[in-house]
Write a structure and sequence with these properties.
Chains A, B, C, D, E, F, G, H: It holds the Pfam family AIRC. Chains A, B, C, D, E, F, G, H: One of its GO terms (molecular function) is hydrolase activity. Chains A, B, C, D, E, F, G, H: This is PurE domain-containing protein. Chains A, B, C, D, E, F, G, H: One of its GO terms (biological process) is 'de novo' IMP biosynthetic process. The structure is a homooctamer. By secondary structure, the first copy, chain A, is of the alpha/beta class. Chain A has 2 domains: 85 residues, 2-Layer Sandwich (Ribosomal Protein S8, Chain: A, domain 1), CATH 3.30.1370; 129 residues, Rossmann fold, CATH 3.40.50. Chain A is 43% helix and 16% strand. The first copy, chain A, has 10 helices and 9 strands. In chain A, helix 8 links the parallel strand 7 and strand 8. In chain A, helix 4 packs across helix 5 and helix 6 packs parallel to helix 10. Chain A is globular. Chain A starts with a helix and ends with a helix. Chains C and D meet through helix 3, strand 9 and helix 10 of C and helix 4, helix 8, strand 9 and helix 11 of D.
Chain lengths: 256, 256, 256, 256, 256, 256, 256, 256
């Protein structure tokens, strides 16, 4: 019940069109309806060309197609689908109808885009996505593709892990890092990349631990703890392997 | 060795003022000196009225005073000191010399400011600092005071934990949340506040787990894991009780 | 050996019908035989139309059929079988004999009912089963079907997770929550749903952490710790993914 | 803003005493008050002679007295204060004013009651509070005193741990267990008591792990995991040492 | 109520010295005594000069004295008190009455014996108590003194840790190990002693991890896990620092 | 180098048959050769009809057959093979030669015996093997078959878990427990069985946690911690699922 | 840009062949090349006949072949490939071209060598690789083959675990241990081997925990913690199952 | 019994001064002394001016003095005492007798040297001790002083953590790192220093995690896991805060 409705109701009470009892009842029911206002800005930012996102894991092929169709039917230009299996993407392609303009799928990152493919990068600056090794690239691509989908220019800086720090500390890479608006630092094993980049950069660094590694990596726990304890300022952490979350947050910051 | 110096050296080589051997030597030594450029922007952003920060914990009273004096002598207007014991603050006051304009200390958050006290809030928007309970306030004040020190307008929203969600979901609190540029969500125990705010807000949320709680809270681990697994987008996490880190990162984002 | 029997025995001793040696023996054996009375009420509550439950996991197809037949042969009207594989359900159907009136199987929750299907909901009030996301539904259905099997009216409130709190805080959902007799709150990832519902509701909340999630969810540990540390009163927790346990306990409370 | 106030306001609108603009403003500010309806039953159950609870830990002596006075001034008959240090209780006694009718403090459980002391046990049945050992008694008394404060009849069954199972499995103790409406099973070390009682009883069992023990007890973790994995049905768990939570939940169930 | 008493009572009933009503009453009160038959051998083994044990930790000085007096009054020759603080031992000495024949206290192991001091070692063979280092000796003495109290011959083999394996593998130490009936292997840090002794000995080895160590010793966890994974056969483990438990079990085995 | 050899060498030195230099060399080499005496008793106890054991896991089919043949060829009557896959057992049967008298394989426990099958139970008393549930039986059978192989009389008491404690506390089961010489208590989930049996029995109890369970059972960790913290005396613990280790140790104790 | 190139450039500047502006540009781009000086010794030691290493896990068959070809084409004599699947090795053999002189693959350790096979052992002394059991051999062979590839003489001492310490403490094994320059101690389960060898040897011991074991071995955690807490001096630890890391480090020490 | 003594004994046997029986007895008692040969090089390296080490923690003041005196009396020139409290050092000074030439104590590292103070650095090259922050210096000094005591030249490179990587990557620091023979990398929090140095250096790197940090540092666990997972080759790890172990191992490598 928005302001206008309350006014209207009060008028009706004044005019005797609505009894006080009825009005009390309606007003008591209202507060939660008002709660709908809770995420309008969020909806707005997503709606303007980027659209809602589907987390593919744990959803059936049918569900994914159905949700995508509904979103596109409601005026959304494009839909991002994350953690989509190859098999689901094939099912999708076979069951696309003309209402879905286009569909692309990246097997490495398991990210798909349904609908209008090209998106303008209206974000303020550039988002640098850096990885410690080549095995971190699937997570990195989930982050990069999410950020691109949400209208950001993304620079990829892969395999610049600290074991060979010269790969990171050289004019070219440093230029990217110095001019970035946000950096996503993705690493498994000991996760030291986040701290090193955090110590070099002058912008927010979103650290993504990955489950890459073995033994005492404990499925990403070592990298996670390492990143949480980063002695560099300006570093925050998302869940293990959460490329989407990092890309989404980076886009938020880049659109400020 | 900056560009100008290299040019100068080449001129000397051309003119025969410097031998090729000497020049090779100098150039070989240069790269790391050049690395000094790595954090100029960082220094700049800090230098302009906010200044360097001293992490007080594990430093002797003497060390803190000495570092603060050095920083202020090098033209920094004010120095933030975090995790400073009351005893250290008293020692500081007793040993201040006229070169330190002023000194304030907040016992709750253990945060002190030495030098010029007032700082203009030149950040873009407002940073909301929210806590789940009253016991989280010391961490919150570390975050808030850090952000204020770095030139941000801060809105405090304390004790709005999810156990009584109406404290959070009401017009006044929601208005603050909806109009924030960055939100710092601080909570111990089950740390659900971050997810709820993340689901309501449309800006980056920095989650700070606190060590508040007992039993299976395991010193903040429960809140930490909860926040890392937040199903809301736009949420990232810093270390347990790391109010400073959250305030610093929030300021970074707010100055974009 | 109840009081009357002891009296009788003493009489026999007095009368010389039983020797002291025999009496000593009987008295020494008695206490444990008496223990048989330990669970009569429990048996009663189960026997009246609901019947014994079979935990299917780790049992062979043959064992399940055999136990079900025995239970039904002993006068139980229906048997609940949980964690039953699809393959086991097919074996069951193929090997049913006329003594088993009917058999239904739900693949999602892996719950089956053998015997008389319909059960009257004689519980006092309604049990609300709420989930944070759609992936939690299999656990939720195990809980719901268990509660229904035991004679309760169940209201399902799925996918009302805190990431979009308006899904929970609206007139319709709130009405269900406000009028529930017991609520089962089921969530994976950060498990915040239990705290939020616990803060809103005025009845016992049984929290069920699920293994839904990845990375730092650690197979349900994050949700489990979160729920154990709930700052809301009236919340208790069962094992990860333990839908049956929650449904069973909810029924107990609802039959008070 | 309660129902009566809304009615009053609508009357004034109808009568022209309040303009529609003013009424809209007042109603817009109301939601927080309106949100109060979210837990009316909770308030009711508490209000009727039992009153709000103060969690003393982490609160200053002054804060506790202040909150207690405010609650009692708002018509609450008695206030429960948990985790109150002895020193805080002494401060309380010294700073009590005549508006606080009485005050009692139990050093063992650190529980205090301010205001009217005696409470009628209007709960349906009895709550049995059982402990494994004597060291668990402080937690047990927190639970018992909470339940009594909330209007329940409590039976104490202390030191009936499974190491000497005859202490539990005898006519007298079994009678209590069999006739209980809710049982709170409190144990540290291996926490087996909850399973054994859960296997014997026919009512909900709330298990409270305690931090009693050493070595691999890991501060209550062993008991916590043990209780969560209880093979007995009808058992749920609260946080380590959370006597209050158990007592509160038990009262909720006992008032159904 | 032991067998003899029951017989006596039955005689009285038979002879009419006791009415049936009185006898029923006595027998109904007996269950605890009757339940005693559950552990007759245990009682026997304890009763014959060794007596019941008091776990001192968490008990008040008064409680310890009181329990000790009661046990000694009931015919027990001596009482073992473990985890007794020095202060408690002093209180004991001051409050001893003539009914307690003697009292000895060992500050290192915090073990005391009240009553008749000397006990005959009627155990079959010898129990060897070995420690990895000198810091493990308090735990070792708890084990050794417990075993001696229960009537065993104990051989101490301290500071024979694997870092200098020649301390263990020499004729003298090996002779003790080879001729032992049970061995208690006590070690902190990496706890390797249990495996090495387990590999050398031909008798049951009870491994006791201790909390000696720092860093990744995690309060005894490293030693505990190490001992549980011992590749030597015949090794079992008790709780961290549980010298009493090891001594008690060793005595049980040694009296077979 | 045994005593006799040293004497011989000294004689040779005395007689000048061996030079002092040679003798010094031989004596310096000796100590480790002497170490061979380290496990003669162990060998003896195994050799007398029971023989060496093969841990099948991680060994190829060929290796198992080869080792078994070698052991039987060296005079051992029978060989126990644990953790042997069904496939390995079939390979064994196909590749047996006449030198192997017989071969039996139990699929449930994955235990095989090669050579002479029947073994006399020369152990002193009976070993009771008890399990909490039916899913623990494979581990229990590994323990039972190991104990039988090593010459012990074994009583099986399966599915006597504490959730239905009357299954354990009844005349028949109690008689077995009371007359046992050693008890092996095997349970997953909360592992309370060990404590309950430990509290009832008067003989050493070897607790075996199993990986049976789900969720917060954490692969046997819950049962392991529970058993390590057992408040009953006389209980010690072996590794999760280590049926062999329990059976071996029980046999050691039963042959004392 | 190596020294020679810088000299050349300076000459050109001097001679006027290159303008100062062009030279500045080239030098600014150079740092990355200059950074190469950071690990010249590393490169040297690798380059001289041993060459760069490929970590096969997570790389496609094509990538492995491609990288190997490139390395061999750049003058490296041989390439070590670790964690290579059998299938990858077969693909390699099929796709080898004449530029790759030879290829060998060891299925057990998953280690391959491409290029010139034989390598001279120019290391100072011998590296002993010892394992606790036979299941640790794959990790041991990864270590041994890495060390041999890098030019070291390796002595294998397998299956000398502490459960039968005479296997380790005998003249032959002790001679190897006493004369080693570096020892790699590899063990799963309780990992005691490292401590025992560390206590015997007089050279650096590199401990490698393996994931061999079950239950409370927790995938190598038990061995890892055990080794980190080794009471023997001179022991350091690498990641679980990290045979390559141990072999590489041992070679480094052996070439000092 | 050293070689010389055995020779002497054999001479006596040859000469008839000692009977064969007596000699056998003496030789049988000898092995323990003979076992001493197991670590002759260790003893040698220690004996030559450096001497045995005393781990002060957990030892009484008296014990430390006594052991030091005994070692110095047996010809050792100097004794290193680690983890010595200030109070113990004062007791030492007060109770020194003329036989102890000198005594020095460093409060920061809690390291003392008793006996001859100056030691020649006969190690091959230099050991670099680097720390991430200033709080790691106590551990670093324990390492440095241990290495110096054992005859090594030590270079200190403190506070070069990765948060400001230019502190590490500059000509001066790099020169030290490049020319080191062994590097000890000491860091708390995220422990990234080890990886970065491992990636830059060409010599063995011994990583020492410290307990510096808070929250998710979990007492050094984060740094420990980070270091164990180092993606740089040539890195191994010792226990948390184990400065002595690192210094000792570094000396071993540096004396190769």
């Amino acid at each position: 019940m928005v302001e206008k409705d309350i006014e209207q109701l009060l008028c009706e009470v004044k005019n005797g069109e609505t009894s006080i009892e009825e009005a009390v009842l309606k007003l008591k029911e209202a507060p939660f309806e008002d709660m709908g206002f809770a995420r309008p800005d969020f909806h707005r930012s997503l709606r303007q060309g980027q659209g809602e996102v589907i987390y593919g894991q744990g959803k059936t092929n049918e569900q994914i197609v159905e949700i995508a169709k509904k979103l596109l039917a409601h005026g959304q230009e494009r839909v991002l689908i994350t953690r989509m299996s190859k098999e689901a993407s094939e099912y999708f392609k076979e069951n696309m109808t003309s209402e879905i303009e286009d569909f692309s799928y990246d097997e490495l990152s398991k990210v798909a885009v349904a609908g209008k493919q090209v998106n303008t990068a209206e974000g303020i600056g550039r988002i640098v996505v850096a990885t410690g090794g080549t095995s971190d690239i699937p997570v990195a691509e989930e982050a990069a593709k999410t950020a691109e989908f949400l209208g950001n220019k993304v620079v990829r800086l892969y395999d610049v892990g600290v074991a060979g720090i010269h790969r990171l500390i050289n004019k070219k890479a440093m230029d990217e890092i110095m001019s970035a608006n946000v950096i996503i630092a993705i690493a498994g094993m000991e996760g030291a990349l986040a701290s090193v980049i955090g110590g070099l950069a002058d912008c927010p660094v979103i650290a993504v631990p990955t489950s890459v590694g073995y033994g005492a990596a404990f499925g990403g726990l070592a990298a996670l703890l390492s990143m949480l304890n980063s002695c560099a300022s300006g570093v925050s952490v998302v869940n293990i392997d959460n490329g989407f979350g990092a890309g989404y947050l980076a886009s938020m910051i880049n659109h400020k």
